[in-house]
Amino acid sequence: MKDVKWGIIGCGDVTEVKSGPAFSKAPHSELVAVMRRDASKAADYAKRHSVKKWYSEAQKLIEDSEVNAIYVATPPSSHAFYAKMAIQAGKPVYIEKPMCRTYAECIEVNELAEKHEVPVFVAYYRRKLSGFLKVKSLIEQGAIGEVRTLSLQLFKHAEEDLSSLPWRVDPSVAGGGHFYDLASHQLDYLDYVFGPINEVYSVVENQGGLYPAEDIISASFSFKSGVIGNGNWCFNASAVNDRDVMEIIGTKGRIEFSCFDFTPVKLVKQDGTQYFEYSKPSHVQQSMIEHVVAVLCNEEEAVSSGKTGARTNKVMEEIVNRYYKTKK
After folding, report:
1. What is the pLDDT of residue 159?
2. Residue 162, pLDDT above cutoff 70
3. What domains sit in the chain, N to C, each tagged with a CATH number?
4. What's the chain look like in SS3?
5. What's the mean pLDDT in 175-179?
6. Is pLDDT at 160 greater than 80 in this prediction?
7. What is the distance of C-alpha 157 from the center of its chain?
8. What predicted TM-score, i.e. pTM, was given to this entire model?
9. Does 240 have pLDDT greater than 70?
10. How far apart are CA 276 and CA 255, in angstroms?
């Protein structure tokens, strides 16, 4: 491609600031059409973001001859459906995370993409954020020696108003609960740094009983590269316990950083501690969107694909699988 002309399917909250404006700010890229089933909301989004076309039917957006790439930003339950529509039309697709509701749906998308020779990307944008690239660089440079183990802690207080069930905690829509929405970023980034996870053990429960999805998870996992990791996720405690810490331990030191808070990366060694600051971009997906455009213009190799996105779904499914089997 010379220029990428994007169409968004599902112009909801995530597209307002995180991603939508970035499509027209990236070089050789322009957002030309948006779609939402509610026509008035689609029209309103187009007007506010200076997008010249809007639709209330996905098929019409996909068939638009000016649109040559699709961003699927709907809830996970429809990711596979819309991604396959785009692929069948021969148009590259950039899918919000998690890639799909289930690993099986990821496989369906990837098999169709391979058949039609259409590229698939997943919006795991931490693979292109500067702070996370710094962590990866420190590890590759041997700043902490050989990596032995890593740990994750993500605790979020329980939501108080659940009078209507948010889709993010409805497994039939999201695939799981907040774990699928948030831990997917952590696990995908670790896949980027250390390669695929090949074995998992977990304990998963719903302690709070506020919604059907899991709300507390403890998991141990190993990477094919030999690194051992563990993670604890809790979404049913109070705000005083909120925390977001990722820690990588090596033979010569450790690295501490946050997945969501944009705090400085901390490098701890015997001879002292260093901090590496990085700022939150105005549009957090911009660096990834610029990268995807560069890939489509044959200028770069993809760092986030349907295959890597599917691996993250597979790991999450293996972690929570026993919990959902007992609920059947």
Report:
1. 75
2. no
3. 4-124 (3.40.50.720), 130-280+312-327 (3.30.360.10)
4. CCCEEEEEECCCHHHHCCCCCHHHHCCCEEEEEEECCCHHHHHHHHHHCCCCEEECCHHHHHHCCCCCEEEECCCHHHHHHHHHHHHHCCCCEEECCCCCCCHHHHHHHHHHHHHHCCCEEECCHHHHCHHHHHHHHHHHCCCCCCEEEEEEEEEEECCCCCCCCCHHHCHHHHCCCHHHHHHHHHHHHHHHHHCCEEEEEEEEECCCCCCCCCCEEEEEEEECCCCEEEEEEEEEECHHHCEEEEEEEECCEEEEECCCCCCCEEEEECCEEEEECCCCCCCCCHHHHHHHHHHHCCCCCCCCCHHHHHHHHHHHHHHHHHHHHHHC
5. 96
6. no
7. 21
8. 0.96
9. yes
10. 11
Per-residue pLDDT, averaged over 120-146, amounts to 98
Residues 213, 171: Cα–Cα separation, whole Å: 6
